Amino acid sequence: MSEDTTPDIVLSLEIDDPALADRLATLLGNVAGLRLAAPGETANATIVARDPRVMPEDIPLTQRELDVLALMAEGASNKMIARQLNISVHTVKFHVGSLLDKLDATGRTDAVAHAARRGVIEL
Amino acid sequence: MSEDTTPDIVLSLEIDDPALADRLATLLGNVAGLRLAAPGETANATIVARDPRVMPEDIPLTQRELDVLALMAEGASNKMIARQLNISVHTVKFHVGSLLDKLDATGRTDAVAHAARRGVIEL
DNA sequence: GGGAAGACTGGCCACCCGGCCAGTTTCGCA
DNA sequence: TGCGAAACTGGCCGGGTGGCCAGTCTTCCC
Which residue did the predictor score with more confidence, B103 or B28? Predict the structure, then answer.
């Protein structure tokens, strides 16, 4: 049945919602040139869906907090952030404190992890 | 054309490889019940493909280092990690030091960010 | 005019972090 | 049997972090 050099595209599904996963599997099963990955098979691409219940509201961070957060994610210390942003270390601490508060984090590492999880920043 | 309550599933594409993205777009464009997302539209699911060239070598971390790393990503302090793993704070520091070394990080926040980027851990 | 929010700064302080030194034990492999 | 790797522990210490207090300035809005 095949023709030449182009094999099927192999897709894997990572969908939280069982109903959606089912519909997709059914629809994609009938598409020529596509194939769903067998268990353990490495796919060319993955279809993902974040459960909408998981990301409720986005956190209202100010521009300055985003600036600080981005540098934190780069592993910068308060001193380095202060230099980069041309503000005092005290001000950096002030913004970091707000971030820990808003992101419900216990420390800067936790804050970066939370922010990445919620899509506030991209690692 | 429509029938009842079931709208099309909206898919967005996030594919590094232009050729693959093109093939998928073509194939999926002809599937009834599916639709590709318009720019800015929120999709039900996203098709992603990580460029294999992007993840070269994996870092040889020991089991214990992975344990520590996972807890670090949760925002745990050295003391908390020590309690969790039933080892001394000194030993935790020892493993953290190795992690900073292997992950080429300047601090624990940087280490977690690097590890997440390289797929060593999942946030 | 008064209030609220954001950005900014300072001092102070307990605690944490990371790097240095040193050591022990256990395990697998040559 | 020795040798390295991994895991584990200790002391020490400079610097970083986070929380508390206090304040100023600007901007926006009622």
Answer: B103
C-alpha torsion B60→A118→A90→B76, nearest 10: -50
**Interatomic CA–C1' length for residue B19 and nucleotide C25, angstroms:** 56
- Of chain B residues 6-25, which have a beta carbon within 7 Å of strand C? none
The answer to whether A48 contacts B45, with C-beta atoms less than 8 Å apart, is yes
Sort residue B25 into left (φ over 0), alpha (ψ -120 to 50) or beta: alpha
123 residues of chain A, pLDDT tens digit each: 545 677 888 888 888 888 888 888 898 888 888 988 887 677 888 888 866 544 445 778 999 999 999 999 999 999 999 999 999 999 999 999 999 999 999 999 999 999 999 888 988
Whether A110 sits inside 8 A of B15 (CB atoms) is no
Q: B106 CA, C14 C1': separation in Å?
A: 24
Query: Which residue type sits at B19?
Result: A
Is the Cβ pair A47, B11 closer than 8 Å? yes
Length of chain B: 123
CA separation for the pair A65, A71 (Å, rounded): 10
Least Cα separation, residue B90 to chain A (angstroms): 20
B109–chain A Cβ distance below 8 A for any pair: yes
Q: How far is CA B115 from CA A55, A110, B107, in A?
A: 23, 14, 12
The dihedral through the CA atoms of A102, B66, B57, A13 has a sign that is: negative
pLDDT tens, residue by residue, B16-28: 888 888 888 898 8
